[in-house]
Each structure stands twice: as structure tokens, then as C-alpha cells.
Write a structure and sequence with these properties.
Helices cover 50% and strands 16% of the residues. With 279 residues, the chain is α/β, with parallel strands linked by helices. The strands form two sheets. The chain has a five-stranded mixed β-sheet, sandwiched between helices.
Length: 279
Amino acid sequence: MVAHAAKFQGQSALLSKELLSYYRQVSHSPLTVVDIETTGALGHNARVIEVSILQASLANGLEHQVTYLINPKVKIPEFITNITGITPEMVYPSPPPEEIWPKCQPLLMAERTFTAHNLDFDYSFLRTEYKRLGIRFYKPPLQKLCTVILSRLLLADLPSRSLPNLVKHFDFDVSTSHRAEADTKACWLLAERLLRQIQDEDDDTLLKRFGQQWIRLQDAAKILNCRKEEAQQKLTAAQVESRLSSQRKLPLYRRWGVEQFYYEQQGQQLALLFEGDES
């Protein structure tokens, strides 16, 4: 295994060499790409109203895609209709969840890497939808790929890595955003482009790209194996490049600076161990 599964739950807290090993492996894996539209932001009190599932790989390209509208049996808020264009009249004649999700099960549970843009959102909704039917839906950490996280590694200084903005950046040929079929295809095109880069570039080039990523304080603290407050003090004292996030104004640090500091600390600790052995 590339990394222990429990550790891999927080990808951004891994070292670049571990991440590179993982993405090299994923680039040769067949993918199941998923996008959903929902009635709200949280799975426990909102429902899926549209799902699209696409199977593809770098070796074979796009192999198969299916899309379903789902009657959620709950009200669709007006703001959701404004964002997605999905109206109550479109979904209420559609099959209910108990018909759609068993039909999707073979595709979603296939031995492929589960892929989505902002994966935690789609994955949590699917787990909840299946739980309502008494079915356990689970993909291990090493079989999940979030294209948001990968785009942060390879496209660190883009002003936005939202899917609509990445579609514009790469000029992908897809239809309107915020519909599951178009967004799933866009996610696949993004994954294809970035994973092809993973395959084609050498280790040094990719590690330099990874080093440009801005990581959160909590991820830096996990890399340094200390509390957030202590990590912030250490990184400030070491003058590691930092900035505030645009929305929440939380501290972000350049990955290469955090890792350089980590390896320096490891070297100091090893030196102290050797000194102890000599005394």
C-alpha cells in the first residue's frame, strides 16, 4: 500500500513523496466519476435529485455514462432550481430513490477509483442515500480521488479551482454547469488532463509543482506532528511563506516550506539521537 489507509484520509497532510506515489498509482486505475445535484448542502436533511455516473480510464477514455433524475419526495427549494435549472415538474415524474440507487449500485461499487470534484460532498450524500435503504456504501481511502485536491497540487496559484472556472480555464467542451451529466463529464476531462500530467512528468518536476500548494494550518500541523498553535509559531519563526485564505481569512502555508522545515527538524532530531548514542 502507498500509505496507511487511516493516515490517507487527510490527503493534504501527507508528504509530497507519498502523494506522488499515490497519484502515480491512481493514474493507471479505471475511474468511476460521479456528480450529484441535491436539495441542500447536508446529506442528513437533503436529498439527491440528479446523479450522473461515468466510467473511464486514461487507457480507454470515456467508456460509459448514465444519468438519472430522482424524485426526492421532498420539496425542491427555489434557490436550488435557480442554480441547477431542475424544477419540481422535472423530477416528480421520475423514479424514487429506492428504484434508482439499487440500479446504480453495480457501477458505484465496482473496483474502480471513486472520483468527484469536492469528493467529500458527493460521497457523504451517496453513503446517506444508501444507508436509508439499509445498504452499506464504502470506498477505502486509496480508492478515492478528489479532483479539487489534485488541482490544488498541480494548479496552486489559479484564483479559483471551482469546476465551472476550471472548465473555462481549460476550455472543456461541456454544456451548462450545475447539471450532473455536464459536471461529471467536466470532472472526467479535468481528471484525465491532470492524471496525464502525473504520468508524463518526472518526479522532480511534479514534486516542485506539489510544493507550490497552499495548505491549511491543520494540515501543516499534522505534517509536523504537533498542535496547530505550536505549528503556527514554528512556521512563523522559520519564515515559511504564508498568506490568508480569500474567504475565511485563515492561514495557509506553501507546502514546500512546511516540508523543508519538517525535514530540517527530522535532521536535527536524528543528530540529537546520534549525539545521545555517543555519550
